[in-house]
TrEMBL record:
It is a multi-pass membrane protein. It comes from Acer negundo (Box elder). Keywords: Endoplasmic reticulum, Glycoprotein, GPI-anchor biosynthesis, Membrane, Transferase, Transmembrane, Transmembrane helix. Gene3D superfamilies: Alkaline Phosphatase, subunit A. The chain crosses the membrane at residues 5-26, 484-505, 554-569, 576-594, 624-644, 656-676, 696-717, 729-749, 832-859, 879-899, 911-935. One of its GO terms (molecular function) is mannose-ethanolamine phosphotransferase activity. CDD domains: GPI_EPT_3 (cd16023). This is GPI ethanolamine phosphate transferase 3. The keyword Glycoprotein applies. It is found in: Endoplasmic reticulum membrane. GO terms for cellular component: endoplasmic reticulum membrane.
Length: 950
């Protein structure tokens, strides 16, 4: 006899298994509690710097860093570098003009490559520490903890550099005690395009005239938020870029006007940069080229005397729109921390594995003027030799610092690098040390023999390059410390839960003769094998990165396959042909919406306002299509309210559930009024004006919670048996779905009512077509034979709804704007709860609570009701089967990430898929527990009492 404790036990086993596996798979990189100090350089084999200096001689006096969050590379690079022009290109002409060869030899544009995941927290942490990101920290993007390992900001503050920050408050959270002045603004309300930017503008220009800072950081967020809400190809995005161009022009004018000899900004260095890119739909977090490619504009106001040596120049050049030559170089964001540290003359962060970029470092004019320790010989050096000598010594310190970190990390970390890896690193570092041409002694020998030291310097620099690049490549491929034993234990525990699931399903079929594993009926056996084959095929598809990217298409294909299977039986039995055809038409529509959803173009209110005629490719902004796009969702919402009302009045035995349904109908009306008040049509309807944009959503949330509490109290104090007929089960199911639906719909935007109608249609068709294969004259077969194919279809339909609503299994597939519907301020728990409901509402919450319809089909089809005992058994079986299917697919995902843990796309694709699937798995278990208690709790308790008394 199945009991609630079986489901609870399975939930606990799943959570334990997932936690153990996750502990082995998503281990964070060990953060060492060590910090670099000026005195450490005496331990290095490199040339000793001037006693008044630290690791390197500072080459710039002041640094201005302007971060434009989510700055795509094509926002900054000229159009001529791309195959086709886009509306958002060439919107920062001031930077393009300065970077042209004829404009300024001390300015250059870089394509900056970030390491995924590309969340803002991860990128800021990577930029300041010089280390590679750890995947597990993505979850901290909504509540950034202070960075405890060595970083650029700590080194600046520790070495007397005064740092001022303004804009995104993430900086203050990451570095709470490092700034001389801070002007933070809340950064998580993605609907707010201007607050953070206006705060930066307010303080940035006045601060440029102040003398009380050495490093100034201004972090703008408008472009990132505009992308999240409206996408890259939108008018607000273009307006933001043009606004930034005007601001940057003013900043450059101020810096330039005071860059003369003795001026405040005589040796100031300007960096305009992005922390990551974004997709065409404004998302980021993954590892696609659009997300990892951002840009850096660097400019020194004291011009360097000559160009960088050609062997270190990796730039590509094109003629820009002004017919001037513009060159663009490439830099890894990993190199940012050490390069800036070298320019400012502070110690490199202890855990940095980056390389001082030659092209960015060369823009600092001070790198070209060596302080002479031997005037006669130094004066004979060419400027190129002087620069290379200086840069070679910087690389020497850079290489020593990386080697020191690798040695300490391997000794301190639980696993660290393997002996083979450490031997390889030591060998290439020893080779670099053997050349030793950076030392001042060797440079004197070359001068005394009247031979140029350039060839030896090039060999030395190449040796250091080889070492630093090899370490970075090795760290990227083997950094994560996988604990294979814990991964195996976690996987074994979840496999064990599958066995328990299987035994529970088999046990529940025996007492009442419900046949799950039939013998002698070849058709029934074939249906069973076919249903399991569909589940296994979908599970196996997770082993391929291509199929994970197209998971929505795989799910809709398998659902269509099962629909054709049902159609064949429908034609064979000459019954329910209309339902089978409607189901196939619905799948066709979902197939199209999944294509749109994968492009992040689901029909949300934001998308409709920006692309109102996307379906027919008619000119944007045409009034008729704008009105249709606003009317259809409201009409669909009213249709849902009508269907609920007709369902309620069809019976007089609703009891307390009637009030929950009436509350949902009222919520639908409020949502319709709320959407109408925001539409362009309502401008002439005075009664809709003045309605607060947050008032209605909050009322919906409160009413939804009240409906759930009403149903819970009704279940608690109802003295009648929980399941005395299929009729009562249908009433309870409709009441629960209606109570949940209003919140899910308003969070999903104007696509919500349409998706709700699609889910109702699909669920109705699955329910009607269930067991169509049986003989229609046999009234007992339907009661005693269980068809797992219907549950499989229900699960596939839920998966398709997830992708058709514009989601996918990646952090850039989250619709962060939904978390702020009804609220402007950020509260972590509240916003996370709303985002969870929006993400999993149609694909997990509603499908799980709607499963009883598969059992109550006889009542809905006008047939004789089943007694409560048999109804209890069949509903228990359906829920166990649904959990079994979910567990099977999640196990496939876990096996997939275990196999592909060294795959190039492990952090960009496989790991996010793992996180989404296990989160959905645990949520499914919890929801099944709640649904079991709601639908079966009292019945289960009755069974236990009867069993005890017997």
């Amino acid at each position: 006899m199945a009991k609630l404790w079986i489901i609870g036990t399975l939930t606990v086993i799943h959570i334990v298994g997932i936690l153990i596996f996750t502990r082995g798979f998503l281990l964070t990189r060990t953060e060492l509690p060590y910090y670099s100090n000026c005195s450490d350089v005496s331990q290095s084999p490199c040339s000793s710097p001037n006693p008044q200096q630290c690791w390197t001689r500072p080459t710039v006096d002041r640094l201005v860093i302007i971060v434009l969050d989510a700055l795509r590379f094509d926002f900054l690079a000229p159009t001529t570098f791309f195959k086709e022009s886009k509306p958002w290109m060439d919107r920062l002409p001031i930077l393009q003009r300065l970077a042209s060869i004829n404009g300024s030899s001390s300015a250059r544009i870089f394509k900056a490559i970030a390491d995924p995941p590309t969340t803002s927290l991860q990128r800021l942490k990577g930029l300041t520490t010089g280390g590679l990101p750890t995947f597990i920290d993505v979850g901290n993007s909504f509540g950034a903890p202070a960075i405890v390992e060595d970083n650029l900001i700590h080194q600046l503050a520790s070495n007397g550099k005064r740092v001022v920050v303004m804009g995104d408050d993430t900086w203050v959270q990451l570095f709470p005690h490092h700034f001389k002045k801070a002007y933070p603004y809340p950064s998580f309300n993605v609907k707010d395009l201007h607050t953070v930017d206006n705060g930066c503008i307010e303080h940035l220009l006045p601060s440029l005239y102040d003398e009380d800072w050495d490093v100034l950081i201004a972090h703008f967020l408008g472009v990132d938020h505009a992308g999240h809400i409206l996408g890259v190809d939108s008018l607000p995005m273009i307006e933001k870029l043009e606004q930034y161009n005007g601001i940057l022009e003013k900043v450059i004018d101020v810096l330039g006007s005071q860059s003369g000899q003795g001026g405040l900004h005589e040796n100031t260095f300007l960096l305009v940069m992005g922390d990551h890119g974004q997709t065409i739909n404004g998302d980021h977090g993954g590892g696609s080229a659009e997300e990892v490619e951002t840009a850096i504009f660097a400019m020194g106001f004291k011009k360097s005397p000559s160009s960088i040596p050609s062997e270190f120049d990796t730039s590509s050049c094109e003629i820009n729109l002004d017919h001037k030559k513009t060159c663009i170089s490439t830099i890894q964001q990993l190199d940012f921390a050490v390069t800036v540290s070298a320019l400012l003359g502070v110690p490199f962060p202890f855990g940095s594995i980056g390389r001082v970029s030659p092209e960015l470092y060369a823009l600092g004019a001070g790198t070209w003027n060596l302080e002479s320790t031997n005037g006669d010989n130094s004066q004979n050096h060419s400027k190129e030799e002087e620069w290379m000598q200086n840069y070679c010594n910087v690389l020497c310190i850079n290489s020593w610092q990386v080697k020191r970190y690798i040695d300490v990390y391997s000794a301190s970390s639980v696993i660290g690098f393997s002996l083979e890896d450490l031997s390889f690193i030591s060998d290439i570092y020893a080779q670099a040390e053997e050349i030793g041409s950076c030392s001042f002694k060797n440079s004197l020998l070359y001068n005394e023999s009247s031979n140029s030291s350039l060839p030896a310097l090039r060999r030395q620099i190449d040796a250091y390059f080889n070492f630093l690049l090899s370490v970075a490549e090795l760290a990227r491929s083997k950094w994560t410390e996988f604990n294979l034993q814990m991964m195996a234990v976690g996987l074994g525990i979840i496999f064990f839960s599958l066995l328990i699931h299987f035994l529970a399903i088999k046990r529940i079929t025996n007492p009442y003769g419900i046949s799950l594993f039939p013998s002698g009926d070849s058709e029934v056996s074939f249906r069973l094998i076919f249903a399991y084959s569909v589940v296994v095929i979908r599970a196996c598809s997770f082993l391929s990165n291509s199929y994970i990217l197209g998971e929505g298409k795989v799910a809709i294909f398998l659902l269509a396959t099962t629909a054709f299977f049902k159609l064949w039986y429908s034609v064979k039995r000459k019954m329910m042909l209309i339902e089978a055809i409607i189901f196939l038409l619905l799948i066709t529509i979902l197939r199209f919406t999944i294509e749109v959803g994968l492009s992040k173009q689901a029909m949300t209110s934001q998308f409709i306002s920006a692309h109102s005629s996307w379906m027919l490719e008619i000119a944007l902004g045409h009034p008729i299509w704008i009105h249709i796009a606003e009317i259809i969702p409201i009409s669909a919402l009213m249709l849902l309210a009508y269907l609920l009302y007709m369902t309620m009045i069809s019976s007089s035995s609703w009891g307390i559930c009637k009030y929950a349904v009436l509350g949902t109908i009222l919520c639908y009306i409020l949502i319709a009024v709320h959407w109408a008040s925001e539409s362009s049509i309502s401008s002439s309807v005075l009664m809709l004006q003045g309605i607060g944009k947050n008032s209605v959503p909050r009322v919906i949330y409160v009413m939804g919670l009240g409906q759930l509490l009403l149903l819970a109290f009704g279940q608690l104090f109802n003295k009648e048996r929980a399941l005395n007929s299929e009729k009562s089960l249908v009433i309870k199911t409709v009441a629960m779905l209606s109570a949940c639906s209003s919140t899910v719909i308003i969070l999903s935007g104007k696509q919500g009512p349409l998706i709700a109608l699609a889910s109702i249609t699909g669920g109705y068709c699955i329910m009607r077509l269930e067991n169509i294969e049986r003989d229609p004259k046999d009234n007992t077969a339907g009661a005693l034979t269980f068809d797992p194919l219907s549950v499989t279809q229900w699960s596939l339909l839920a998966t398709c709804l997830f992708f058709s609503t514009g989601h996918w299994c990646a952090f850039d597939g989250l619709r962060y704007g939904a978390a702020f519907i009804g609220f402007d301020e950020f509260v972590l728990v509240r916003q996370a709860f709303l985002l969870t409901i929006e993400t999993f509402g149609f694909s997990y919450i509603l499908p799980v609570f709607g499963l009883p319809f598969l059992v109550a089909r006889q009542y809905l089809m006008g047939q004789t009701e089943q007694d409560g005992k048999l109804l209890f058994m069949k509903l228990s079986q359906v829920y166990l089967m649904y959990g079994f299917i979910t567990a099977t697919t999640v196990i496939a995902t876990i096996i997939c990430v275990a196999i592909h843990r060294r795959h190039l796309m492990v952090w960009g694709l496989f790991a996010p898929k793992f996180v989404f699937d296990v989160a959905g798995f645990v949520l499914t278990d919890v929801l099944i527990c709640l649904a079991w208690h709601y639908y079966l709790g009292r019945e289960d308790g009755t069974k236990r009492r009867n069993t005890t008394s017997n």
